[in-house]
Amino acid sequence: MDKRNLERVKKLYDKGFKCIRYEDGENGELTAYFKNFEEESIDSIQCIDKKEINEIKSFIDQY
Fold first, then answer.
1. Does this model's pTM top 0.85?
2. Who's near 46: CB < 8 A, 6+ residues apart?
3. Contact 35, 18 (CB under 8 A)
4. Would you kindly state where each structural domain of the chain is located, as residue ranges?
């Protein structure tokens, strides 16, 4: 696992983005939606690696 998505989430938070919602798909994939309220920008990530999904959710839930 290369943790690309987790690193991308951390970079989004560093740029002022916050997770506004995440959801689990039918096949176990994670889709997370982010928004920077100052710039009114949005972004999203999708991840299928179960371990990385748990790390991403844990990171998001801390903030």
1. yes
2. 5, 29, 30, 31
3. yes
4. 4-62
Token couple for 33: 């939606």
| Tens place of pLDDT per residue across the chain (63 aa) | 578 999 999 999 999 999 999 999 999 999 999 999 999 999 999 999 999 999 999 999 998
Task: Give the full edge-to-edge strand order of the sheet including 30-36.
Answer: 18-24, 30-36, 41-47
C-alpha span between 29 and 46 (Å, rounded)? 7
Residues 6 or more apart in contact with residue 53 via CB below 8 angstroms: 28, 29, 30, 47
Among residues 19, 17, 54, the alpha carbon closest in space to that of 37 is found at 17
